[in-house]
Amino acid sequence: MAAPLVSLDDVTVQFRTDRGWTTAVDGISFDIAERDCVGVVGESGSGKSVTALSLLRLHARGTSRFPRGQVRFGGQDLLTAPERDLRRIRGRDIAMVFQDPMSSLNPVLTVCDQISETLRLHQGLDRATARRRAIELLDLVRIPDAARRVDDYPHRLSGGMRQRVMIAIAIACRPRLLIADEPTTALDVTIQAQILELLRELRTELGMAVMLISHDLGVIAEFADRVIVMYAGRVVEDAPVDALFRSPRHPYTEGLMASMPALEGGITRLYAIPGRIPDPDEAIAGCRFGPRCRHAEAICRVAVPELLAIEGRHRVRCAPRTRATGGL
Amino acid sequence: MTELALAVPAAPAALAPRRRFRLMRRLVGHRSFQIGLVLLVLLTFAAILAPLTGIDPSSMKVRLRFRPPSQAFPFGTDGFGRDVLTRVLYGARVSLWIGFVVALLSGVIGALIGVLAAQFRSLDALLMRIMDGLMSFPAILLALGITAALGPRMESVIIALTVAYLPAGARLVRASALVVRELDYVLAARIAGASPLRIMLRHILPNSVSPLLVHMTFVFAYSILAEAALSFLGVGVQPPTASWGNIIAEGRDYATEAWWVMLFPGLAISLAALGLNLLGDGLRDVLDPRLKGPG
Amino acid sequence: MEALVQVRDLDMAFPAGSARGQPVLLHVLHKLSFDIGPGETLGLVGESGSGKSTTGRILVGLTEPTGGSVKLFGRSITGPGRRASLAAVRARLQFVFQDPHAALDPRLRVGHSIAEPIDIAGTHSRRERNDRVRELLELVGLPRDSADRFPHEFSGGQRQRIVIARALALAPDFVVCDEPVSALDVSMQAQIINLLMDLQQRMGLSYLFIAHDLAVVRAVAQRVAVMYAGTIVESARREALYAQPQHPYTRALLDAVPRPDPGRARPPVVGGEVPSLLAPPAGCRFHTRCPHVMARCRSEVPLLRETAPGRQTACHLLDGAPPA
Known about the structure:
The structure holds 3 protein chains of 3 kinds.
Chain A: E1 6-17, E2 20-32, E3 37-41, H1 48-54, E4 64-65, E5 70-73, E6 76-77, H2 83-89, E7 94-97, H3 111-123, H4 127-140, H5 146-149, H6 159-171, E8 177-181, H7 189-206, E9 209-214, H8 217-223, E10 226-231, E11 234-240, H9 241-246, H10 251-258, E12 307-311, E13 314-317, H11 319-323
Parallel strand pairs in A: 3-9, 3-10, 7-8, 8-9
Antiparallel strand pairs in A: 1-2, 1-4, 1-5, 5-6, 10-11, 11-13, 12-13
Helix pairs in contact in A: 3-4, 4-6, 6-7
Chain B: H1 22-28, H2 31-48, H3 84-119, H4 121-135, H5 139-150, H6 154-180, H7 184-191, H8 196-208, H9 210-232, H10 244-251, H11 259-287
Chain C: E1 5-19, E2 22-36, E3 41-45, H1 52-59, E4 67-72, E5 75-76, H2 82-89, E6 93-96, H3 110-121, H4 126-139, H5 156-168, E7 174-178, H6 186-203, E8 206-211, H7 214-220, E9 223-228, E10 231-237, H8 238-243, H9 248-256, E11 305-308, E12 311-313
Parallel strand pairs in C: 3-8, 3-9, 6-7, 7-8
Antiparallel strand pairs in C: 1-2, 1-4, 4-5, 9-10, 10-12, 11-12
Helix pairs in contact in C: 3-4, 3-5, 4-5, 5-6
């Protein structure tokens, strides 16, 4: 297999709080191949967004640190690379789309200004060329009447249109990896469908890899080739999308799927995972899902389980579930 | 209400670890708040302990005019032979008191005006136009006018500065009260039939005052400076009562020969203003949710 | 069955500035009618701007509608006598908010927040009140000592339990739930939905359950009304609506929801966006996006009419022709 585009190895992120350093993300390892589409799913506090930000080292300086781990991209470790190199990579090789299209655009600049900024910065285009390119990009993200819309200010655009503009900015330099952090969460369901469709089309047209972060298993199922499930700062399951939804192996993944209300089939009482999501600084011995797990055994309360392969590319962090195979 | 005696089978959900007094802890751990607090406490103690120097701040000994700082008179003496250290300490009582009272009065009255304007929309236009009117004069000119009208006494300085600093506080509280009154917990109280007065006192006021608290520390500092300015202009606290402002005013004619008469009260003013600003910065960092770190 | 809640021809327009000297109105609701019976849950689904939240606010008296009537427990809370009627029905009426962080006063201990409706009504002695708070905490599955704590000590799901406890303080008959689980994580969502269902069964509550999530509504509501741009386009029993949606918008909405099924053949995506309520389109408000639009849809407003027993749809496609 060819070398992966990005490779996360034991990435650990800590934040400073009133009570010292808190580990938000603990030993995350996975690869993203060229043209791969990885979905990262988890609830609040799972560390999914923190993981994404570490790919661009966008955490606030001084209040965050990386005690160990590497993010390898193009022969460099992004966690230790000089800020200048990172600035070149951000927006050009790795681009990002955020959840809130309202606050991601500067209200006093036109759409054209904001798209050209990236182009002029990374590609050194002159004003006129950048403008022409901006209109092309708006066309590419299916904004009707692009030549006119390009001079609008963000407040004239709907939420869905703004997210399209954000995507246009992100793909302006044809990045090799697009990180989309809950790109449709703030949008209505019909607009969400439009944006997901657009992302799918762009991904094929531009041949880029996508890392999609979402709390919504439905969005992940319809978009990703491979899914990484995170819980309380750790990867608990990593599998191809079909395998994960056909036969989830981690009790947390199972519980999550069972607690989702469905649109088809019989109407029954929902399964609810008991307890609550732990705080990042809460000390939990062994498996962090242990206290809420229906299948917890004695071993789960003592030893931190490892992420082990049980079948092909299906990896699970669960001692009882990996014991049978002993890990492959 | 018998139907409510039934218990739901679900086991009580476990609670997160206790997170009490988080604010206090953040505040106490805040560096500039610590420094500011220490400065202010020291100044306050100095003011309280002023009689310990054993010297009458107003006793004049012409024989001892303009003595430079020495063992006997650490801050020297002024043109009437009064001990400058003693006068600065007694002056602290007046200056800090004026600052404190002005901050408190303008804060309390400003909060009431602001929250009334936000909660009772019919009063809003009237109250805010009055505040606009007051705001349109430079604070020091307004104060100058009021003290001139009421006579140069400590009470008039307090009234003048309170009126001058009132509008800013009222506007601040009104702005945050306008946000708070639309929050869901206020709607919940309205749905339950709470009266506007109850909503104002129980929900809106307590949740709108944190920016004002920060503002009040700055008003405290401004008032000390403004009192000095007013006294310097001769309409502030009148001699022989010592205030930091009038000590400086009395020393200005001899500034070149007897620099110590102006230097030490000047330093005291700077220290007090610095301490209060640091305190205010600390309060703002801790109280302003926008400046809080992740989680 | 006498309806607890009776809404007829509800209209709501907010002033939204002025243009060329003429006041501009934002028509957020247009001729809305529905009933809710005792012990029943009506689900109100729609996207942003559909007017579902405004409807909820009108029903608890937070907003006065500009037209139409609302009867709660047989008393009209619109028109003259509104204040007196609201005061009379207030104790039987409650509201659960979307954001459990904004719904609790951060400076009040949880016990005080829960007891607020009791304190305002002034119906209980101090002892009774405190006993009641403990009873309510137990009812929503929180430890009894929660009363002395502050909201920030609780997680989102726990806060929503507190909000529900406050809503139940005076044992209401009708509760408006405005997106009660949409701010919560999936695993917390299921807990709160189950709690709301249990409480309904035990106390015979009626709910108006407002949500944008069709799957959540399906889990809780016996009847569902779908709103689009201020109008109800379809209302039916849950089984019928989800199995055979009649209105093209309901169909589009259902199709657009992503399913946790990677193999699903994705239906075509409906284009366009919700129209501006400042100048809603003539005729059917969905005609700008409808895949089955006809000439008639652009000029003539379709009326909500019975297409099958207990089922109403506002669409010209269903005129004369048997339901698809």
